[in-house]
Amino acid sequence: MNAPWKHGSVGQRDPFHAFVCDDHSFDLLRAVASEMGWAPEKVNKGGMRNAVQSLSITASPQILFVDMSESGDPLNDINSLAEVCEPGTVVIAAGQVNDVRLYRDLVASGIQDYLLKPFGADQLRDALAQAQAVFLAPRDAGPERPHMTVAVVGTRGGVGASSMATSLAWMLSEKKKRPTALLDLDIHFGTNALAMDLEPGRGLTDAIENPSRIDGLFIERAMVRASDMLAILSAEAPINQPMMTDGGAFYQLLEEFRQAFECSIIDLPRNMLIQHTHLMTDVNVAVVVTELSLAAARDTIRILSWLKSNAPQARILVVANRVHPGAPEISRKDFEQSIERKVDVIVPFDLRIAAQAAKLGKTLAETAKGSKVGAACTAMMDEVLGLAGDEADNPGAKSTARKGDSLLGKIGDFKSMIPSRRKDKATALEG
């Protein structure tokens, strides 16, 4: 994900401007600028405040060096700078705060580099040379692929839908190198950012409270970057603060995702599925995550039927997660018979891998490399890509139910299995 000032063409712009706070940096920048063939008079005193004021009335340079030593709120000031910078500007910041989190936040906001003061001539030359290379690099985006939107829905709480959503987003971004957005719509209790050891930020709550602010620039600032190819939008809203929304903000976010990313993964709680039906309008693939239990079978039937009626364009993938190696509550055969379709992917239960993923702050798929769990996650990704890829050629595939099926009838048929199952269990206990 690139910041707004990292797009655009070279055009007729000054190659370099600098705004610094101290005499040492001022003299050093003038000397190095002269070495690189740039006008030394483009080095100015005044730091961030002067930079924002100056660039609000003049054209932005190709490369901008700005001193943040006198900035009380670096991230907010960088956002103010972005508002006055034209597309294409590569920004190098400098400051006296030696903090890894600040560095990551600044890079995530779109700056090219952050130099800790005092810096030397060699360090400055390297940073400016790298910035020049970034600005002049070819901007060939390569062959365009149609945007893919995937909704991940859990049939019940605790089946691991969020784990599957984060794993899918990670694999698409890391293994397939596709720019991917992950949207966690559990506003109060979402765990997508937590699973990757990230702070969720206020981006999602800000979007809900101020939908009119949502645009490409908002997306760049609000999303938290997990890697160069993966960005997350989530929240941890106070539980005494209900989020009142008609869902319009979510729809606008997804519209912006289509412009900025190749893939959008929505971690969609089932209550949101019912409350905001329009979120499924443009979904290509719906991943239904379930467990092999009686209650999950009932709810899988209901959700598959809902998807058939409300999102007929979506291709369906059923993933049974956390399947114990021993006998599950319901066998795979009986489960598939009850939902009248096959389970596409079985993800085995592995407590050690799950605990390790939580401990390391990594996705299940990343932690499970080389294991059966990892292979199942990869199979899920391949199935999703396959369904999205052949959607136009075979729109009738993966039907969620047979024609003429009655939802009430299907649930009733399955409930008829309950007495015999309980009787068998009681007989086993007596024995």
From TrEMBL:
<dbReference type="GO" id="GO:0005829">
    <property type="term" value="C:cytosol"/>
</dbReference>
<protein>
    <recommendedName>
        <fullName>Response regulatory domain-containing protein</fullName>
    </recommendedName>
</protein>
<dbReference type="GO" id="GO:0009898">
    <property type="term" value="C:cytoplasmic side of plasma membrane"/>
</dbReference>
<dbReference type="GO" id="GO:0016887">
    <property type="term" value="F:ATP hydrolysis activity"/>
</dbReference>
<dbReference type="InterPro" id="IPR027417">
    <property type="entry name" value="P-loop_NTPase"/>
</dbReference>
<keyword id="KW-0067">ATP-binding</keyword>
<dbReference type="InterPro" id="IPR050625">
    <property type="entry name" value="ParA/MinD_ATPase"/>
</dbReference>
<dbReference type="InterPro" id="IPR011006">
    <property type="entry name" value="CheY-like_superfamily"/>
</dbReference>
<dbReference type="InterPro" id="IPR033756">
    <property type="entry name" value="YlxH/NBP35"/>
</dbReference>
<keyword id="KW-0547">Nucleotide-binding</keyword>
<dbReference type="GO" id="GO:0005524">
    <property type="term" value="F:ATP binding"/>
</dbReference>
<dbReference type="Pfam" id="PF10609">
    <property type="entry name" value="ParA"/>
</dbReference>
<dbReference type="GO" id="GO:0051782">
    <property type="term" value="P:negative regulation of cell division"/>
</dbReference>
